[in-house]
Structure formats: structure tokens, C-alpha cells
TrEMBL record:
InterPro entries: ACP_syn_III_C, Thiolase-like
Tagged with keyword Transferase: yes
Source species of the chain: Ravibacter arvi
Coiled-coil residues: none
Keywords recorded for this protein, A-Z: Acyltransferase, Transferase
Beta-ketoacyl-[acyl-carrier-protein] synthase III C-terminal domain: residues covered: 284-363
Protein name, UniProt field: Beta-ketoacyl-ACP synthase III
């Protein structure tokens, strides 16, 4: 089989960076009152800046597909003719602009130069971007493709805006209940960001400069053991199953803000770290990779709250990764879901820090129903 290399990495971040003081300027206040959870969430997640694909007035500036396509175009910079060589496009997101057609074909529609090629659209949440990467990697490794592009993007701000919750708040107030949204709905408003990233995946490394050889990618799901934790377009029943938006009336969708993103934070906290770290260590042991074989550790974090939890659990498992090996840009780029790992690797790739022979461990968790993808790369 062919060796596989990431030869180019690019990103697209919409508009200017937004600091925490301006979040409710963009997203609005619910029931005319500042969020009670905002300060708590921001203190824990450690995010200082993020990007929104909308103006201060709430007007959209980009579609999800447009951002993904712009990140793909950025791979080739001043040489757009290179787009004609692309023979596979795999694009992922947890926030497509529509249920049909698929996200990836919408991105393809923004890239007419690529011609008629294979297009794949993995679904999912944070792991979806890694699944797109894995499909591109396998296609090149098998010799089926030679110039694959994978991309991941998110545009979640439209569902984070306060007007999506006003009707529910009004209904709760009329029932003389607490007119503050459940923490499971509100806290995600201060966690998420928009943007896109892309990899160029080929069977040969760059003639000049560095490339990243993909040694392996491993994925696992624990959905057979655990109920859904994060969900959208559904609501959770008492038995842990989900009731689909298709089974609600139009008014019920509004009354319960069913199309908002929800998270079972108790289920998250008791499972996300130990499941992911245990599986990662098991995979590394199977592959014969020890702590001395890792120069950079890139964990996708939804919040810096989990950084110390992961570090402590790694130490408990006698697999300590010292602080200088960790690399994340959550603080400055925000949590961009499926695109986060692309933005992290893009920043490290262009930082000037990497030298040939360095080895990079990637770890991407997905709390939606507890899935994980791990990757191991070598700088060549």
C-alpha cells in the first residue's frame, strides 16, 4: 500500500475574532436578561476569542459550505489550477445548512474547478472531521486516489441566537416555572464557534518543506454501552432514548426549542475522559507507541476544564504526557467542533516549531454518544 502524507493544511475563520464581552451582542439575551450561566461557563472553558459567521446585527455572512470551500481554496493559495488535480472531496460537519442534499456535495458545488469527482459526506459531531480524514487517508493508501482533500467546518451560531429560545422562556414563565433555560441548553451557547479547515492528502511528500506522514488512524464508538449525551433535533426521554423532531408537531418544536443543542452534562462528566484515555492508551500499546515516542499531543478539548482531568487520568494510568508536549489553540480559536483538530494541526504545521522526525498524537472525542478517533503522524 502507498504511504500517505498531509502536504498542505489551511483554514478559514469568518470575520474578526470576538471576545467574551461581546458574545451577547452577537447572540442576544434570552428574555431580555444576561445569561446566568455565561460567567460560570466562560471561567471553566478558558476560551478568550472565537469566530462567528454573522454580523453584530445577527446577519449571516457565510454558509457552512462556503466556509468549507474557502478553506479548501486556501490550500492552493495563488495556484487555484491545482484544484483540478483533486480526485476526492470528503467534507464533514455537525451543522449542515440543510438536511438534504448532503453537506459535501454543497461544498463541491462551491468548487466547480474540481470537475466531476467522488464526494463523501460523513455525518457525526466532533469525530466527523476525523472520519473525513480517515476516508481520504484510506483512499490514498489503497491507491484508489492520489490527490484527496478532506475538510471540516461548523456554522452553529444561527441555533445559538437568543430568538431560538424566547418562545420556550415565555412558556415557562406563563407556567410560573423558573424562566431560565436549563443549563443543558444554555451552556453550549458559550462553548461553540464557527470556521473551517482542510487537509491535502497525497501519496508523495512535499519536495520542499515539511509533510506529515500518516502512520495510522483508529476510531471507536461506545454507543453500545451509553445513551446519547449531546443531541439536536430531538429530545431525551426518561429512558435515555431520543424522540425525533419528526415526531413533534410544529408548535411542540417551538415550545420545547427541540432544534437547539442540548447536553447531558452529568453523563458527559462521568464518562468522556476515562473512556477516551483508556481506549487511547490501549491503542498506543497495541501499536507499540510509548510516551517517549510522542513529541506533540493534540487533544480536541471542548473546554480547558477537561485539560487537567485528562492530564491527571493519564498520570494515574502511568502514561504521563508532560505539559510541553501538549498543543491546543482552544483559547484563541474557540471550540469549532469537527473543524477543531484541523485548526489545531494547521497552526502547529505553520508555526515553524516542527522538525523532521517529530511525532504527533491526535485525540478527538465526541460526546454525542461517546465516540473517539486517534491518529499518529510523523513529520517528514
Amino acid at each position: 500500500m502507498s504511504e500517505v502524507y498531509i502536504t498542505k493544511i489551511a483554514k478559514f475563520l469568518p470575520n474578526e475574532a470576538i471576545d467574551n464581552d461581546d458574545l451577547e451582542v452577537y447572540l442576544g439575551t434570552v428574555n431580555g436578561k444576561p445569561s446566568k450561566s455565561k460567567a460560570i461557563v466562560l471561567r471553566n472553558n478558558g476560551i478568550k476569542n472565537r469566530y462567528y459567521a454573522l454580523t453584530r446585527e445577527g446577519v449571516p455572512t457565510h454558509t457552512n459550505a462556503e466556509m468549507a470551500a474557502l478553506s479548501v481554496r486556501a490550500l492552493f493559495g495563488d495556484n487555484p489550477e491545482e484544484l483540478k488535480k483533486v480526485d476526492l472531496l470528503a467534507c464533514a460537519t455537525s451543522s449542515p445548512d440543510q438536511l438534504m442534499p448532503s453537506h459535501a456535495v454543497m461544498v463541491h458545488g462551491e468548487l466547480p474547478e474540481t470537475g466531476a469527482i467522488e464526494v463523501v459526506s460523513p455525518s457525526g459531531v466532533c469525530c466527523a472531521g476525523m472520519h473525513a480524514f480517515r476516508y481520504a487517508w484510506m483512499s490514498v493508501k489503497l491507491g484508489e486516489k492520489k490527490h484527496a482533500v478532506c475538510a471540516a467546518s461548523e456554522r452553529l451560531t444561527p441555533v445559538l441566537k437568543s430568538d431560538n429560545f424566547e418562545d420556550e422562556v415565555t412558556r415557562l414563565a406563563s407556567l410560573e416555572k423558573n424562566p431560565v433555560l436549563a443549563f443543558e441548553k444554555d451552556f453550549l451557547r458559550w462553548m461553540l464557534s464557527d470556521g473551517a479547515g482542510a487537509f491535502y492528502v497525497e501519496d508523495k511528500p512535499n519536495a520542499e518543506g515539511i509533510s506529515l506522514r500518516v502512520e495510522w488512524l483508529e476510531a471507536v464508538s461506545f454507543a453500545n454501552q451509553l445513551e446519547p449525551c449531546m443531541y439536536m433535533g430531538s429530545d431525551k426521554r426518561s429512558d435515555g432514548s431520543l424522540k425525533s423532531y419528526k415526531d413533534y408537531s410544529a408548535q411542540e418544536l417551538i415550545d420545547g426549542s427541540v432544534m437547539s443543542i442540548k447536553q447531558d452534562v452529568k453523563l458527559l462528566g462521568s464518562n468522556i475522559v476515562n473512556l477516551g484515555v483508556d481506549r487511547m492508551i490501549a491503542v498506543l500499546q497495541e501499536k507499540g507507541v510509548g510516551t517517549s515516542d510522542i513529541d506533540y499531543f493534540l487533544p480536541h478539548l471542548s473546554s480547558y476544564f477537561f485539560e487537567s482531568k485528562i492530564a491527571d487520568y493519564l498520570k494515574l494510568r502511568d502514561f504521563e504526557l508532560t505539559p510541553e508536549k501538549w498543543f491546543t489553540n482552544l483559547r484563541t480559536k474557540g471550540n469549532v467542533g469537527a473543524a477543531s483538530i484541523y485548526l489545531m494541526l494547521e497552526e502547529l504545521f505553520h508555526s515553524g516549531r516542527l522538525k523532521k522526525g517529530d511525532r504527533i498524537l491526535i485525540s478527538v472525542p465526541e460526546s454525542s454518544r461517546f465516540s473517539y478517533v486517534y491518529g499518529y503522524l510523523t513529520v517528514v
